[in-house]
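Q: what does this look like with 2-acetamido-2-deoxy-beta-D-glucopyranose bound?
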Amino acid sequence: MLLPLLILPWAWGALAASPPVPPGSLTLRLLQTIIFHNTSSTDMAGTALLGDLETHSLDCRPCKVRFLQPWAQQGLTPKEWQDLEELIYRYLSDFIRLMKELVEEEGEGYPFVTQFSIGCELHPNGTSRRFCDAGMNGEDFVSFDTDSGKWVTQRGDKLTLKALESLNYNRVVAVMLQFLLRTTCVNQLKSFVQHGNESLARQEKPVAVVFARVPPPAGTPAPVLLVCRVTGFYPRPVRVAWLQDGEEVAPGGRLNSSGILPNADLTYQLRSSLAVEPGAGHSYACRVQHSSLGGQSLLIPWEQSRPWGPGLAVGITLGVLAVAAVAAVLRWSRRRGYQDVRHRESSL
Ligand SMILES: *[C@@H]1O[C@H](CO)[C@@H](O)[C@H](O)[C@H]1NC(C)=O
Ligand SMILES: *[C@@H]1O[C@H](CO)[C@@H](O)[C@H](O)[C@H]1NC(C)=O
Ligand SMILES: *[C@@H]1O[C@H](CO)[C@@H](O)[C@H](O)[C@H]1NC(C)=O
Ligand SMILES: *[C@@H]1O[C@H](CO)[C@@H](O)[C@H](O)[C@H]1NC(C)=O
């Protein structure tokens, strides 16, 4: 049934010239979630991502690909996109039918959720890796091994083994999937790298503020926690360090980090905190290094003019107010107000 699709001319076409790949590996992946509510009702949602950039969404009743980037239609003709939609639709319909049969046979209950992560990764050295993994209720379920063309699993339960048997029984689909992952996915990835180069090169500068967390009740000799909040940066890689008297604080128990977290506007944020002893007389600054800063770093000193002690709470309140004001100003003039770091560093 799927065999005719194998001889589609586009499927065999290779990209004429291999466009340059930016440094670092780049991934094109399709994430597909299917919610099985009961025997008669399922919900599906699909999305394609180039790195962390959402490029397509897939609505499957029947399947319709939506292009979320101006260049997302590149690489295939409208007819080829339509063939792909039909192929995915047929494949998902078969999968849903199979899962319903198995769940009913094995007496397993609704609702349940399956998720697919399918795609390819292109390395700077020109090699690529393919992946096709399915999960069920948040746990590994089955994976497709592109080299052998076989579905495999780590699980031993009856439902999974039966699913594996059915999936491996259909050789035509396996060959098609192997081809889609090895050739179509890699060609599309190269095409997007070429046509989406401007989106991939997007740079958003970080905005950072330093403030002290409200300290524990008076009388407790606990350290004060300084927090450096860095937000609004893109791409994801960032380096945030604390300087004590101009020296980088070594990793260890005094430091803590939230890790890099996403914002809603496809920028990222991170919080890094440093525990400091009140009254030790050191100066502190948070240093941010990011590709958008053109080789410079952003340096935000902890402005603490008052001595530590009884006045601390007042100082901190004032500090928090000042930081809030600075944050408001920074947000307002986000693209302009970056300090000249070389100048700042010399004055530390
Ligand atoms: C199946 O689930 C859907 C969505 O939750 C619900 O609207 C529908 O009534 C359910 N049908 C049956 C037969 O339980
Ligand atoms: C190419 O790069 C990837 C990822 O960095 C690495 O895993 C792979 O071994 C490399 N292959 C060759 C042939 O150098
Ligand atoms: C993207 O590619 C076009 C054409 O290949 C080129 O003119 C442009 O400078 C590139 N832009 C970036 C940001 O690399
Ligand atoms: C780091 O911060 C997290 C919350 O942001 C907290 O749960 C965790 O205990 C902290 N770790 C240390 C070592 O302070």
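The longest helix spans residues 78-105. Helices lie at 3-6, 9-12, 78-105, 158-169, 171-195, 197-200, 312-332, 341-346.
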